[in-house]
């Protein structure tokens, strides 16, 4: 039965790839969110794509580091002495212990098991007693360094090193959001959570405007009502829409002097596919770095960054953090219901709402249809 389910999904993907335009847009069948076999293809995709791990500000000074993981791969994110952000394997080359934990500032990491010692650029510089082992050379046992890029202040990693340069791929998006100066924004709030829903549900939810005036009626609806949402056509590896503010709404907080009048009155919502979603607004930008954790859980690194935070009123920032946390809590309640509904045996494919409010979801389906089919042929 399971084999048949993935075959049906792959055949849906083929139809989506052959579909013309948004008229044929449909929702996906429930298996899309529950299939363990599809998850395997998604995990392969996460290894060959750019995946966001957080902000460069988290490793601001040389020696700063934090540990994290992507799928089951332990990672050590450092700023080395050349002032570069590097993403290293956090797995010791001796017998595989985890080397670092948590976060802090260190230029050398000593493995807690037998004290092999590495620099924050991955070179092995010490290995007790190994000088007695013939032909052992420290230079043969550095830590793998993964491809990484910092774009708009976000750190991205590509585990298998095959992805085309990210900044090139996002050039069009970059020029359209340049005025916000997201790269200069600073962290006001950051948290890591695991939600009991498939990762795609949280991505889709963040990226569609259809639910804004329903789920968020008492929170963000007054600034970003569904009726003012406006899809913009994405590009290779990204999609998005504008959440336009009603005309009578006053501006909130400071924003970069480079921001256009139009952009001051809207939030630019974008997704760096597959799993980084961002809501860029002049004063405050929110984001989630997502990754699957099994079929029915998502790991989410959730953040809020602000422009010129030092000279902002702390009460205003606290209020914004509170509003964001409330908004996320409203989403979580709904998504848990969707996750429950998707286990129904009788749910069939449905229709997507107009392109301005759910066009991003269709782009997400198109991207996954293309890329999971590639992942499938790679593993065949
Ligand atoms: S496992 Fe790290 S030094 Fe032995
Ligand atoms: Fe929402």
Count of DSSP strands: 17
**Regions with pLDDT < 50 over 5+ consecutive residues?**
none
Please give the order of strands in the largest beta sheet: 1-10-9-4-3-2-5
CATH class call of the largest domain: Alpha Beta
> In what range is the share of β-strand residues?
25-35%
- CATH topology of the largest domain, by name, is Naphthalene 1,2-dioxygenase Alpha Subunit, Chain A, domain 1
CATH architecture verdict of the largest domain: Alpha-Beta Complex
Describe this structure in words.
By secondary structure, the chain is of the alpha+beta class. The protein has helices at 2-18, 31-34, 36-48, 166-169, 171-177, 199-206, 212-215, 261-264, 314-341, 355-379; strands at residues 51-55, 64-70, 73-79, 85-89, 103-105, 108-110, 117-119, 124-126, 145-151, 154-158, 186-195, 229-235, 238-244, 266-272, 276-280, 284-292, 298-306. It contains ten helices and 17 strands. The chain has a seven-stranded antiparallel β-sheet. A seven-stranded antiparallel β-sheet has the order 11-17-16-15-14-13-12, sandwiched between helices. Strands 6-7-8 form a three-stranded antiparallel β-sheet, with no helix packed on it. Strand 15 and strand 16 form a beta hairpin. It starts with a helix and ends with a helix. It has two domains: 2-49 and 172-379, Naphthalene 1,2-dioxygenase Alpha Subunit, Chain A, domain 1 (Alpha-Beta Complex), CATH 3.90.380; 54-158, Rieske Iron-sulfur Protein. The model has no long low-confidence stretch (mean pLDDT 96). Bound molecules: FE2/S2 (inorganic) cluster and fe (ii) ion. Residues 205, 211, 215-216, 327, 331 line the site of fe (ii) ion (FE2).
């Amino acid at each position: 039965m399971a084999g048949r389910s993935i075959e049906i999904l792959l055949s849906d993907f083929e139809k989506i790839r052959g579909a013309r335009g948004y008229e044929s847009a449909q929702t996906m069948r429930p298996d899309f969110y529950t299939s363990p076999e599809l998850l395997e293809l998604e995990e392969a995709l996460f290894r060959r794509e750019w995946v966001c791990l957080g902000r460069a500000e988290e490793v601001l000074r040389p020696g700063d580091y934090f540990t994290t993981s992507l799928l089951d791969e332990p990672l050590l994110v450092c700023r080395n002495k050349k002032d570069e952000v590097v993403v290293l394997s956090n797995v010791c080359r001796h017998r595989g212990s985890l080397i670092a934990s948590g976060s802090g500032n260190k230029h050398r990491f000593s493995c807690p098991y037998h004290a092999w010692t590495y620099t924050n650029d991955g070179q092995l510089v010490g290995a007790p007693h190994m000088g007695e082992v013939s032909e052992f050379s420290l230079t043969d046992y550095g830590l793998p360094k993964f491809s990484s890029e910092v774009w708009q202040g976000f750190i991205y990693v590509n585990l298998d090193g095959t992805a085309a340069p990210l900044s090139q791929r996002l050039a069009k998006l970059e020029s359209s959001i340049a005025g916000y100066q997201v790269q200069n924004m600073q962290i006001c709030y950051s948290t890591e959570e695991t939600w009991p829903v498939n990762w795609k549900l949280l991505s889709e939810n963040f990226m569609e405007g259809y639910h804004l005036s329903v789920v968020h009626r008492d929170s963000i609806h007054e600034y970003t009502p569904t009726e003012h949402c406006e899809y913009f056509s994405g590009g290779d590896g990204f999609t998005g829409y504008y959440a336009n503010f009603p005309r009578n709404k006053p501006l909130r907080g400071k924003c970069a002097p480079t921001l256009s009048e139009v952009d001051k009155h809207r939030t630019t919502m974008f997704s760096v596919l597959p799993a980084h979603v961002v809501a860029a607004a002049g004063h405050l930008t929110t984001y989630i770095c997502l990754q699957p954790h099994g079929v029915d859980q998502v790991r989410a690194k959730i953040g809020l960054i602000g422009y010129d935070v030092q000279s902002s009123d702390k009460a205003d920032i606290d209020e914004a953090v509170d509003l964001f946390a409330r908004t996320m809590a409203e989403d979580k309640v709904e998504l848990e219901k969707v996750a429950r509904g998707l286990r129904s045996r009788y749910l069939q494919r449905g229709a997507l709402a107009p392109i301005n409010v759910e066009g991003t979801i269709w782009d997400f389906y198109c991207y996954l249809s293309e890329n999971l089919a590639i992942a499938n042929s790679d593993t065949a």
